[in-house]
Amino acid sequence: MNRISKIIVSLLVSFAIATSAFAGALTVSGAAKATYSTVSGKANGDNTLGVANELAFGASGELDNGWTWKYQTEIDPSAGTTSADAVTDDSNLNLTTPFGTVAVCASECCLSAALNFSADAYTLMSDTAYGEGKVEPSNISSYANMQYHTPAGLLPLGMVVKAAYAPSGSTFVNSANASNQAVSTTVGATEMYRIEMTPVDGLAVNISYSDTEGSNEAGKTDEQNDEGGAIVGKYTTGPFTIGVGRSYAAIRISNDGGDVAEAYKNTNISVGYSVNDSLSLSYTKEKSVQEKATAATVTYDQTTSSIQAAYTMGGMTLAIARADYDNVGYALDTDVSETLFAVTMAF
């Protein structure tokens, strides 16, 4: 067990001796949302209707020494099926103390800063159900993991440091007392770090880095581990918000040979404008460059351009988002356009 995991486990054990908790409060949250998507161009499918199908159940409470705790799990039916199977996923339990926050997460607790540049009026179009193929750095929320966050106000510039450790590549949402998890042959342990700071009013800076150990596949030796990072800045002044970000993802390469993808470099910019309290507009441009193991190989940049508008009327928000995807999947001239309409009710 590495140093990060030892520190987090020690904190969990010490916190466990805290005195009894007061009765906790139960909450249910989710999104009442309906969408309609039209896609045109190469690799397009049918127009699609969607209705939000996730509910998050939470519980929270306070110990008699003032420490607070929070638990959450989600009910998330499988997407793209005709059945109404309800799957419990994305669970986490965290404890906040004057010494920081400790969390244990199953497929939850994102630390990647790669997408924090978005100033979109509705949503980041490279993070929707349409698979344009953009590759982002790995995120520890893909695995069962444990984390430690420094307390707010401890460090200068409003800085908070977060460290996480996933002991394996397990993506299972295990129940309590789980043991003897099957070893992943493709993903080992993962470490991840994130720094958040506000150096000046209106400016938020986020930096993240992840490193994943190699595999245990028989007869294979990793030539390159999975490694990635991102640095993002977002500045708000008056009605304008401007976000910029760079991210890098090195891909695991084993001794399979061949001209495989070696890394991806992403450059993103997003501008949002609040016309008034009800109407918001935005424009976002994302560019992803693929690098092959053989430098002489010709590659094609994948780009996403999006323009959006969202109008809030009481407890209802109407949004329209248009995205143009060029070189989908890094393939030349595979261009697609998508228009997404959304109705969201606040509750």
In short:
With 347 residues, the chain is mainly beta.
- Give the N-terminus to C-terminus distance in angstroms: 43 Å
Proportion in β-strands:
over 45%
Name of the CATH class: Mainly Beta
Instruction: Let me know the CATH homologous superfamily.
Output: Porin
How many distinct folded domains?
1
| Overall form | globular
| CATH overall fold name | Porin
Order of helices and strands: HEEEEEEEEEEEEEEEEEEEE
List the total number of helices: 1
Low-confidence stretches: none
By DSSP, the count of extended strands is 20
The description of the largest β-sheet is: 18 strands, antiparallel
What would CATH call the architecture? Beta Barrel
Any idea what the radius of gyration is?
Answer: 22 Å
What's the mean pLDDT score? Answer: 87
Summarize the structure in words.
With 347 residues, the protein is mainly beta. The chain has a single domain (3-345), classed as Porin, CATH 2.40.160. It has one helix and 20 strands. The chain has an 18-stranded antiparallel sheet, covered by helices on one side. The longest helix is centred in the N-terminal third of the chain and has 14 residues, at 3-16.
